[in-house]
Amino acid sequence: MKKRVITAIVALAIFIPIIIAGGVWIDITASVLAIVGLSEIYIMRKRIIVSLDFFIGAIGVLLLSLPENALRWLPSDFSRFDLAYVFVALLLVLMVFTKNNYNFEDAGTTILSMFYIGNGFHYLAVIRNSDSGGLSLLLFGMIIVWVTDSGAYLVGRKLGKHKLYPAISPNKTWEGSIGGVLAAIIFALIYMIGFNQFRNITTMSQSVPMLIILTIILSVAGQIGDLVESAYKRFYGVKDSGKILPGHGGILDRFDSMLFVLPLIHALGFI
């Protein structure tokens, strides 16, 4: 527990100033986190990081995590997805030159990881740097994720009886899941109304029922993101995605829910 608390304090001392500063600092941070996240997938799969396929995948995940304005040198009709596909093609061609030592399943896992991780961290920076109250909107998403996680854990420990999905995550319960959503609603209302964040997040309706519906959607999405990570960790037979955060696991362990929630905030039209 002591190690966990110390890691949390150090991580927050680094991360909070970065999200407050925004700009190029959050852009760089998002890209670094994306590359580390990809490396954790490789380590879970027991594949070598110092390899040509990881190098290609790392460039791909970097391109997908970068903000659009970092790629202004591209032709106007050429997006970061188009550029990333070049590296998708390179991974597929690599199968030929390695005579299937690097095979289709390997390429598929790397490509899926590139888009899942790269696009998720892309919106960490994009939301923070948006003109729609970026800092307030990012904190809104983070509060929902963190409170859902904590609420689900506390309620699940006290009241949990009915397993949510034991084949994937045996400790999660329906009571904890619902408790997490309710806790997220309470804190979202406090944050948005008590701290008058509606004035900052100009794209969000000031309707309380709509705020509650939005919070439920994002809270559930965050829990799905958590279950997704539980699924592939169980598949690879590991407890944590990595060891970069002592007592907390890896980057994917800390951002699994955010990788689902942040793109959804964009998809719902808030930036």
TrEMBL record:
GO biological process: CDP-diacylglycerol biosynthetic process
PANTHER family to which the protein is assigned, alphabetical: PHOSPHATIDATE CYTIDYLYLTRANSFERASE
Transmembrane segment boundaries: 6-36, 48-66, 78-97, 109-127, 133-155, 176-195, 207-228
Family the UniProt entry places it in: Belongs to the CDS family.
Localization in the cell: Cell membrane
Organism: Bombilactobacillus bombi
Lineage: Bacteria, Bacillati, Bacillota, Bacilli, Lactobacillales
EC number in record: 2.7.7.41
Enzymatic reactions: a 1,2-diacyl-sn-glycero-3-phosphate + CTP + H(+) = a CDP-1,2-diacyl-sn-glycerol + diphosphate
Functional pathway: Lipid metabolism; Phospholipid metabolism; CDP-diacylglycerol biosynthesis; CDP-diacylglycerol from sn-glycerol 3-phosphate: step 3/3
Keyword annotations: Cell membrane, Lipid biosynthesis, Lipid metabolism, Membrane, Nucleotidyltransferase, Phospholipid biosynthesis, Phospholipid metabolism, Transferase, Transmembrane, Transmembrane helix
Enzyme class: transferase
Main location: membrane
GO molecular function: phosphatidate cytidylyltransferase activity
Protein name: Phosphatidate cytidylyltransferase
GO CC terms, sorted: plasma membrane
Membrane topology: Multi-pass membrane protein
